[in-house]
């Protein structure tokens, strides 16, 4: 992957934060997305060195997951957890592994990490649509 490519913040990608702001299994970064014409809350976390992002909406009841702003991981820091009823999710897939909604998923937000910054991409563009 070309990490030196300059990236604009046009329709292909909107900056979330600097790469350094997301530490491994640490606090997440909240941000807003234009999601098919609707403004939605979302968040990004780093897990296994990669950045993953999801709409901040539990698959059980559509309310925000974090207990404190940005606090998305459970105590083991192995799972994303909903503060309301304890649904826990695989950070790399958003799949609910336990709690009140097993088998459901968080809605994934496409992201890219380039040149020390993290961007979210239009859901219509996705990872593959990033300009080369
Ligand atoms: S609202 Fe998230 S587990 Fe119930």
Automatic annotation (TrEMBL):
Residues 13-120 form the Rieske domain. It comes from the Bacteria. Keywords: 2Fe-2S, Iron, Iron-sulfur, Metal-binding. The keyword Cell cycle does not apply. GO terms for molecular function: 2 iron, 2 sulfur cluster binding; metal ion binding. This is Nitrite reductase/ring-hydroxylating ferredoxin subunit. It comes from Silvimonas terrae. The lineage of its organism: Bacteria, Pseudomonadati, Pseudomonadota, Betaproteobacteria, Neisseriales.
